[in-house]
Input
Amino acid sequence: MMLPIPAAGRLVAVHGQDEARAVPHITALEISIPIGGQVRPLPEGDRYLGFLFARASNPSEVEEALRTAHGLLEIVIDPGQAFGTGAHASTRLCLELLLNLAAIEQPPGALLDVGTGSGVLAIAAAKLGFAPVVALDHDRESAAAARPNPMFSSSMSASS
Output
């Protein structure tokens, strides 16, 4: 079984490996990305976190072993500045919308980025002339990651 990468960032840990290997019919667990390595989920990324292997007398036992072992793994990823890079389709669409709005109206006016994540949309809006730009996120870690970004200007604020 290919182990998907659940989010972009830096791989901090994969807990539960011994427990997963101890599941009956599991023959191997391989984590192919080193701790500390940068990860990106598909389709933006180009690889899997690793692989689980199982062997049993029938397919249903293999499936059950793989599901159980996978459920025991806790993948810890530090998103840091890796998320919100503009690669996701929804982010690209929002960037296109900002470009179109900025082209229609000069100066473009105020912008509120709710759920800012890394702040990439707020940064783009400020660069396009939107002002003031306010970036909000209920996740304190997202706001903390966005705030020190050197692209933030004095006309922008990020808060949680």
Remarks:
- The helical segments are 17-21, 59-72, 89-104, 120-127, 140-146.
